[in-house]
Amino acid sequence: MTTKAARLFRRMDGLFAVYKPQGVHWKLIRDTIESNLLKELNSCPPPAPQLAVKFQLLSSGENNGSKDLILSPSMLPSLANHPLVTGPQFHKVHVGVGHRLDAFSSGVLVLGVGKGNYVLEHLCKSHVTRDYTLEGEFGRATDDFSDTTRVIEKTTYDHVTQDKLERVLAMIQGANQKALITYSQMDLRTQEAYELAVKGLLYPHGKSPPILTGLRCIHFNPPHFTLEVQCVNETQKYLRKLIHEVGLELRSSAVCSGVRRTRDGPFKAENALTRQHWTADCIIQAIAHFRKTTRKIRKSGMYRQTDGQLNSSAKIQEQIRSEIGQSDQEHVELTSPTSDRIVDRVAPGTG
Amino acid sequence: MGLDAVVRPSPLQEISEEEAIQIQVPSALPPDSFTLKPYVDQSETLSKLVQLGVNLWELEQRPNVGSMLVRLDFHADVAPKLLFLKDLGVEESKLGTILTKNPFILTESLDNLEARVSYLKTKKFSQESVAVMVSKAPYLLNFSVERLDNRLGFFQKQLGLSAEKTRNVVTRLPKLLCRSLEPIKENLKVCELEFGFRGNEIQHIVTTVPKVLIANKRKLTQIFDFVHNTMDVPHSLIAKFPQVLNAKFLRIKERHLFLEYLGRAQYQPSQPNYISLDRLVFLPDDVFCSDVALATLEDFERFQKTL
């Protein structure tokens, strides 16, 4: 008979997303979630105590009439398996973290529990794009590119207008498109490469520096401005440096006051768990919600390992991308799917 | 070749009752082990401790505590101390947790324990307050009389409180008497110099929330910085509601930003729609959303995901 704790533990297998608050290290979140899961598992009632044969001095039965004490065996509960002696039933739950977020950033953080950790590896290698919202402020430059560290220089920003900003963003995006084509190691003069590029399925093979596949300005209210970025292979420091470089290109300076990840592959912010919901039952519900996406990621990972050819893996990537693309169209912030943006921007970038 | 010289009886040989009684059976207990599990059933001390609720697994992780517990004799060492604690007024349900936190009560001599309790009674602590203090800070009675005296004197002098108020503070947080004094002195200096609280404000804060004295200095500074500089709350209001210094920083930050987004961040008592700091911090999430922010819990969660 399986105990309640064992049944609960078997349900803790899969991926889910958590919304990381700003200022908190990712390791603290991982430890909090692990201790919450362990607390729930260890609060299940322990198994019944085992019985052991013990010899006790009991008085003999009434038929003898005398009060002799004789040794007689009886089954008594043994204290050796008491939970206060053996300790808690579960000591460790394997909780792994997907693409990490540093302490300054906030946003969607993918975590894997139990067997989901194997799928995390496939997710990291599967070239999924990530969506970030970057908040910037003109007028200052700091050594860490964020707004809390030491200020190095102060500049004016009155000359910055929205179309100058758009021009700078277009130039950056053109450079990134060129990098994407170079690192995808595909000759664009072939027909199949052209078709992939039209559909927006080019992605870098092997190791590559951070590449932005999409970039636009959502909000411009000098000195504050907000950019929306889709990128591959990035770190949060690179994105803060991007804001700094935007400021430099506009002949001013800028610091980043917030980096927020709104999407990590197929995991979006709407389904991410906030701090109040980091309990075992909410996590198990979230794992059940993401079961289909987890299965798809695992299957695509298996195909990529067995089949090294470009075409078939491209087909699987296309399948995942189309699902992400369909769900992207429901996403409020994006107005056009990724493929359109690439076709638009190639012309002014190369021109 | 010498084996044939030894005559060994066969195990199926019949022997008389007297010979059977004289056979020595070696004890099945292992001479050493990593856990207390093999000894629990045989040892009276250990089984009685488990029945009291002492967490033996936790205690055997600490170095040398396991061997000390196995060597104790129940009737000579453990029983007198347990009766002493019961006479003091400590509840039986709490005995297990006290012994789990501090097993060295059982090795302290009974005279020392009685001397320390009588010292506390001369300082006019009532019987119930001594019992409460021992259950909250199990290491209290392991400290010598001079050390307790030193600490009580320090608190009375440094905080400038009357004897009655010092007793009240120490009864609510007896850990103050167990810890070292350097971090407490640093916290007091930080309150006075860095935060800029006046003497009587510090006294009021400490009597309302004694935990400020042993709080982490960096976290305290972070909370005070946010409340005073970002939320623009003056010193007098913070001193009036010191619970805010004890709260979690992320909670204060998210709730304040939510109220600011809704336009309801009003912390001055003279203005309309005033929100007191203790209501900001103390209320659970659903009550906060419905009463203070006048919004739904889902709105608050959606807002949290935009921070």
UniProtKB/TrEMBL annotation, chain B:
User: GO MF terms on file?
Assistant: nucleic acid binding
InterPro entries assigned to the protein according to its UniProt record, in alphabetical order: MTERF, MTERF_sf
Name the principal localization, coarsely classed.
mitochondrion
Q: Name one Pfam family in it.
A: mTERF
Q: Which residues form a coiled coil?
A: none
Q: Which domain of life is it from?
A: Eukaryota
Keyword Transcription in record: yes
User: Gene Ontology terms, cellular component aspect?
Assistant: mitochondrion
What SMART domains does the record tag this protein with?
Mterf (SM00733)
Q: Which PANTHER family match?
A: CGI-12 PROTEIN-RELATED, TRANSCRIPTION TERMINATION FACTOR 3, MITOCHONDRIAL
Q: Which family does it belong to?
A: Belongs to the mTERF family.
Q: What is the protein named?
A: Transcription termination factor 3, mitochondrial
Q: Which organism is it from?
A: Phoxinus phoxinus
